[in-house]
Design goal:
Blueprint lengths: L9 H5 L4 H14 L5 E2 L11 H12 L12 H15 L8 E5 L1 H12 L5 E6 L4 H8 L3 E6 L10 H7 L4 E7 L11 H12 L5 E5 L15 H4 L7 E6 L11 E5 L2 H12 L7 H12 L3 H23 L4 E2 L7 E5 L17 H12 L1 E2 L1 E2 L8 E5 L4 H16 L4
Parallel strand pairs: 1-11, 3-4, 3-5, 5-6, 6-7
Antiparallel strand pairs: 2-8, 7-8, 9-10, 10-13, 12-13
Helix pairs in contact: 3-11, 4-11, 5-6, 5-10, 7-8, 12-14
Bound molecules: glutamic acid.
């Protein structure tokens, strides 16, 4: 142990840095060196925040709304959040049982930090968003990873869930539409999982619904508290404005759950960041209460991009990609590239090798599937304009074609 690491909290020391941010940092470093990189790495919409929302932020500044809010958020925003859960998710939510946080990430982190004791288990279906296991780890818990491969549509099944639950299970984390696969749970699938959960009353459920509005082909969105009211007392339903309204940088997430949990999360936040940015809260209020056309418009654009991208990926030798039902990610299997050599003689042994070579030689940044708990795959975020996406697809295809056995 060195002088610099010996004082670190041991749970933090054992956690990995965010894989998505690592790739984003590498993109920034390459660009700073003057290299042209097409980034398919960041999970954020490429659109500007709609103008009426930006204006609400500007107005908040102009009107001097620049002081603290209550820790749990502006009452008007919490009421709008409760109304959103009622209107869109059929959840009868009291605004007092909502909490506004600095991004969806803080909702999740607050919930885990407020409830986990050392060794408590958290069931996480894989592929998972890179931060779930690391947040659990940082909070002293034990991630229990359940591999959900392509055969179950990258989704957790009731029998896999039943086998993963032990007396130490504290949480199950569900994410639909999923980052990184875009998989969407149907009402029936959620009911199947709910049936198992009803039989295990000690398990809390965290439903990460951040991609709720990015769902394609006319599919309907369901969240577990809505389909199984018997679970409501132990579900934390979380969401935010980042993906739905292209507001990633405003950092506003929110959640609703049982009063004891929301109170504990508020207590934690009160000793940490306090309320989220006041200006951002006013903008989020405008997002939730103003015109909603942007949601439909951006969804249509993402669906069109998805169709082009998946078709192009499936034409590239060695790649295979299922059609994702939601989010703005494609999760492509690169098994067919493993064991091949680049023209420079580099042997590709893992998906990480492949994304490194894609970045350095094809100028395209993606994130390796192994960071999401399932390899050999890579994740592509298709949140970028048509022309760049077209160039990226061309570069990926060329990279695959140039490999030899
Ligand atoms: N959730 C996004 C992603 O997966 C944003 C980056 C992050 O927080 O991981 O790319």
């Amino acid at each position: 142990m060195t002088a610099t690491t010996q004082g670190l909290n041991r749970f933090l020391a054992a956690a990995k840095p965010s894989a998505t941010y690592r790739v984003m940092d590498r993109v920034a470093a390459r660009r700073a060196e003057g290299k042209e990189i097409i980034s398919l790495s960041a999970g954020e919409p490429d659109f500007d925040t709609p103008s009426h929302i930006r204006e609400a932020g500007v107005t908040a500044i102009r009107c001097g709304q620049t002081r603290y809010t209550q820790v749990a958020g502006l009452r008007a925003l919490r009421e709008a959040v409760a109304d959103k859960f009622r209107r869109e998710n059929g959840l009868d939510v009291d605004w007092r049982h909502t909490l506004v946080c600095t991004g969806g990430k803080q909702v999740i982190f607050n919930a885990l930090a407020a409830t986990l004791n050392e060794g408590d288990e958290v069931v996480i279906p894989a592929p998972y968003w890179v931060s779930y296991p690391e947040m659990v780890q940082v909070c002293g818990g034990k991630p229990v990873i359940v591999e959900c491969g392509v055969r179950s549509g990258f989704k957790l099944t009731p029998s896999l869930l039943e086998n993963a639950i032990t007396p130490r299970t504290r949480w199950l984390i569900l994410n639909s539409p999923s980052n990184p696969t875009g998989a969407v749970y149907s009402r029936e699938e959620l009911l199947g999982l709910a049936e198992v959960l009803v039989a295990h009353p000690h398990v809390l459920v965290l439903s990460d619904d951040i991609y709720e509005h990015l769902i394609f082909d006319g599919l309907a969105f369901f969240t577990i508290a809505q389909v199984e009211p018997r679970l409501r007392k132990r579900v934390l339903t979380m969401n935010g404005v980042s993906k739905a309204y292209a507001m990633t940088g405003w950092r506003i997430g929110f959640g609703t759950g049982p009063a004891w949990l929301i109170d504990a999360m508020e207590k934690l936040q009160g000793q940490q960041t306090s309320g989220a940015s006041t200006i951002s809260q006013y903008a989020a209020l405008a997002a939730l209460t103003g015109p909603q056309d942007f949601i439909r418009e951006s969804r249509d654009i993402f669906q069109r991009r998805r169709d082009t991208l998946v078709e192009r990926l499936n034409r590239a030798p060695g790649l295979h990609c299922e059609v994702p039902a939601g989010a703005f990610y494609a999760f492509a299997s690169c098994e067919g590239l493993i064991g091949k050599k680049t023209p420079a003689g580099k042997l590709l042994l893992t998906d990480e090798d492949i994304v490194n070579e894609l970045l350095d030689n094809a100028g395209v940044a993606a994130v390796q599937g192994s960071a999401f708990g399932l390899g050999p795959y890579f994740r592509i975020a298709y949140a970028l304009d048509d022309a760049s996406l077209e160039r990226a697809c061309g570069a990926i295809a060329q990279f695959c074609e140039a490999l030899s056995n």
